[in-house]
Amino acid sequence: MKHPILKTKPPLWLALLLAASTGGLESDLAAQTNATKEAELTRVLSSMRLYNGRGTAESSRADEAPRMNRDAGGILRHLGASPGHAFLPPRTAPGQPGETARYFVQDNKALLGIVSSNIDVTAFQTRQSGARTFVRLQQTYKTLPVYGGQMAVQLNTNLGVEFLSSDLGLEVNGADAQPKWTTPTITAQRAVAIVSAKVVAESPGIPFTTTTPQLMVYAPSVFNATGPAQLVWEFKMGSEVEPDLDARWLVDAHSGQVAARHALSHSALNRQIRDSANTTAWPGTLIRSEGGPPSAIADVNSAYTFLGQCYNWFQNNHARDSYNGGGATINATVRYCPDADSCPWGNAQWNSSSGRMRFGSGFATDDVTGHEFTHAVTEFTSGLIYENQSGAINESLSDIFGEFIDLNNANGDDSAGVRWLMGEDLPNGAIRSMDFPDDQNDPDRVGSSDYVPSVPAGTGNNGNDFGGVHSNSGVNNKLCYLLVDGDTFNGWTVNGMGITLVADLYYEANANLLTSGSGWNDLFEALRQTAVNLGWNVDQRNNLYRACRAVEIASGNNLYVDGTVNCVVKNGVQNCSFFGGPFNTVVQGVSGAHPGDNLYIRGGTYGETVTFSEITTVRSYSGSAVIGD
């Protein structure tokens, strides 16, 4: 289940739910489940420890409260320890960070919404960065992968959990009621035949290939949609001739209906550059290889030069060896045309099935080349699905790094008037403005009238721009501009921090903490955890928060201080209940607040000395509050 774009913690929902319960078995079970969630959460939070310079856990005291984000059902979606701290897992697997992350999930199933004993997770990607290890976990049901159901877990050197982001398909819990559900009714061959017939009808005469189908579970909630879980055959289709056919297909393994289609071609050092000479020839004639002399064809030389700059940017700034992190050959075809009616072709693409970039005549410019190269990087890191919110983030990351490469290569005009234009050197001029997206009718914040509504999950195509991925990318593009150059926007003033800091922020978030179905709220949580990882100070993190508020991917929460009560659990909830209660000192409230929170202090006198370091709005309620010794 994706998270609401403007997320606030609902501090009263559990108490209200309990008060509204009328009894009976269903409400008793709900209460038991909630009690288990809260017990697990209390145990996790109380396990947080400070690590000294030797990596040893010392104490639980923290100047900043841990960060937590739960959905309206109380399910944990994000959890971040205070800077320098980590949550001690009940059990670890020494030398096996993936298994330790899995243990943490198993030991907190109720808190994460896992009810079925058939749901598990398994590590599919582990990345070491300094003293930290980043693990991406794949959700499974009876060992079958849940498509897009993933988690990201960050561990310190002692295997303490510093951060968790969860995007699980929880409707899969209901599959236990159908014991034979995981046995397909139609064969893999039939699933391929169904899609093949559809493709042949829509694109007659176009040759294509398919991968071997894999049985999976499709959970619509991962992609912010509703509906039951489906058993599906998943496979990829690719065409050497028609890039728009490159897609991942999910076919219901019982009904034979297409459950979803997700594009694998995204528009917008060992190098091999081919030329199609403004024809449909694919992959074209090899013109220039690594170390070879310049060609008489300008587009070939442009692609060769700019792809080299892309490689050097990621290698020099992020220690990444080619787009896959493993030294992959960089393949590109220039002056490509998908068909005779689209020649010269006014576009560029990263093509997953062929591992090749395609550029129409004149489109191998520095920022566009960087854009497509970054699509390849994203495929081998977060794997952001090219649809709706995750697709818009995918597109924006490509715009961001394409522009960073453009601004740092000393090629062309980078003056203020074109500094944030994507594609200013293209034959027809710029295609997007990153500092002022609305100049191109793209949204600069989530609430903009230019924001394109999402399409039903799995129905994205060129006609609907896959849910507005090229337009809604403006939200994160604006965020990047604010962070790099600084500006006042939407009532928030943001200080410029420069390209170096912001490039590290976005790269590390994409490489380590985003998952394939991440949306705006996930991006916000990933960015602020990455800021902690990079050692940003409080002022810098507050600046990040202001920028995220400006583009409306973050919002504040309401916390309460009441010196007249002393609840067992003090977490900022307004009233005492089994599930928590207000802080009873202002110091506790300030410590528990995060940038942008509203801190409500009950009327009375609080003899405390308080220092506010976060961006917090403080108000009194039920009378005037006096604070001070």
Overall structural class, as computed from helix and strand content, comes to: alpha+beta
CATH superfamily label of the largest domain? Neutral Protease Domain 2
Tally of separate helices: 12
Total number of strands: 27
For this structure, what is the CATH class of the largest domain? Mainly Alpha
CATH fold call of the largest domain: Neutral Protease, domain 2
Number of domains: 5
Shape: globular
Report the span from N to C terminus. Answer: 47 Å
Biggest beta-sheet profile: 11 strands, mixed
Keywords:
6-stranded mixed sheet, alpha+beta, 11-stranded mixed sheet, 629 residues, Elastase, domain 1, 27 strands, Nuclear Transport Factor 2, Chain: A, disordered N terminus, 12 helices, single chain
Can you offer a commentary on this structure?
The protein has helices at residues 13-20, 24-46, 97-106, 188-202, 298-318, 366-379, 388-407, 465-485, 499-513, 520-533, 538-550, 586-592; strands at 48-51, 57-59, 67-70, 76-80, 85-87, 119-129, 132-141, 144-155, 161-167, 209-210, 214-218, 230-238, 247-252, 258-263, 265-267, 271-279, 285-289, 330-336, 348-351, 356-359, 421-422, 432-433, 486-489, 492-495, 558-561, 598-606, 617-627. The protein has 629 residues and is an alpha+beta fold. The protein folds into 5 domains: 13-177, no CATH class; 188-263, Nuclear Transport Factor 2, Chain: A, CATH 3.10.450; 264-380, Elastase, domain 1, CATH 3.10.170.10; 385-554, Orthogonal Bundle (Neutral Protease, domain 2), CATH 1.10.390; 558-627, no CATH class.
Task: Put the structure in a nutshell.
With 629 residues, the chain is of the alpha+beta class. The protein has twelve helices and 27 strands.
